[in-house]
Amino acid sequence: IGQTHGLRMLGSLRKPFSIQDLENLIAPIETRAFKPDAADLRKALDRGDILPFFQPKACLVHPSGPAICEVEALARWQHPQHGLIAPGEFIPLAESTGMILPLTWTMVEQSARQLAQWRADGLHLSVAINIAPAVIQDLDYPDRLAALVERAGASPEWFTLEITESGAMRDSEHAMDILTRLRLKGFNLSCDDFGTGYSSLVQLYRMPFCELKIDRSFVVDCIDQSEARVIIRASIELGHNLGLSVCAEGVEAQDVFDYLHAQGCDSIQGYHVGYPVPATDLPELVREASRRLLEIEP
Ligand code: C2E
Ligand code: MG
Ligand code: MG
Ligand code: MG
Fold it and tell me: Which residues form a coiled coil (predicted)?
């Protein structure tokens, strides 16, 4: 069961996870006893049961050598009876019920506080937050997000907002307006799951992205799939030619890591670098992952 995606979601296994956690994670979604509805999610948000786990991202082009400079905040539902619940089971519900807005605010707020705390402790990190299409609808949201971040003792420059390619292209003129406002507030912007949506290259060129994040479906098995490697190389070249930094997600093995490094990928995220873990486990994971990164050939 160590190979299941679910167990990996738990991150560190040093914690005493409940049997319910483990059953939750290995059972297929259809057979689970608990199927959350809108009222359950509302209660979870009110009680503070939705929290960020953090997954490190290795920066390969850092001036002083490869380093962990950023983490991605990934939502987890810590249910008092049903254990840890993966975002695939409640983000769609949050999106269809309008609760994606309060969910995003709490992810941003908790991440901002955590980041400020880590920086005060000498651990200098930035954080990436996933932003659903609904969150880039309202012209007031950029101001609101920046105010939220500042109230929590952090700065928009410490944040990267990950917007899926399909989310950004849905209503591209309007999205462009909001993304520009976010960028002017100081937020960094990343085009998440790149390669799975349908972006026109002109739109990609005009949108104020800082980073292009190659979807993990191209990355996981790229060593055995020449088509995937063609897409990866083309994405890296396109990103660089547009002045963007290029990240690959879903890197699970050393050979994939080495391939992406050799192709000039700027940063790498995946189980090979580190699993998503609770905030308390992140400093130790960053230290351990940084040690491993320093062994990389320049
Ligand atoms: P994403 O933004 O593309 O995040 C990457 C997902 O890939 C995460 O799944 C992460 O745990 C997983 N992953 C990381 N490294 C590897 C790897 O090496 N191999 C494999 N197979 N998977 C890897 P997770 O945490 O289950 O999140 C799934 C999706 O849920 C995210 O995809 C994102 O779209 C969404 N999500 C998570 N948290 C939030 C949130 O706070 N707000 C919104 N709107 N969406 C969220
Ligand atoms: Mg993401
Ligand atoms: Mg992604
Ligand atoms: Mg993805």
Answer: none
pLDDT digits (tens, 9 = 90+) for 4-62: 455 555 554 445 566 666 666 666 555 567 899 999 999 999 999 999 999 999 999 99
Q: How many CB atoms lie within 10 A of CB 2?
A: 6
CA of 151 to the centre of ligand 2 (A): 24
For residues 229 and 218, give the distance between their C-alpha atoms in angstroms, rounded to a whole number.
Answer: 8
Interface predicted TM-score of the whole assembly (ipTM), two decimals: 0.98
Q: Which residues surround ligand 2, an ion (CB under 5 A)?
A: 130, 162, 192
Higher pLDDT, 297 or 245: 245
* CA nearest to 205, candidates 238, 181, 174: 238
Using CB distances shorter than 6 Å, the residues near ligand 1 are 55, 74-75, 86-88, 91, 100, 104, 107, 130, 132, 162, 192-193, 216, 220, 249-252, 269-271, 276
The closest residue, in CA terms, to atom 14 on ligand 1 is 270
Q: How far apart are CA 118 and CA 42, in angstroms?
A: 29
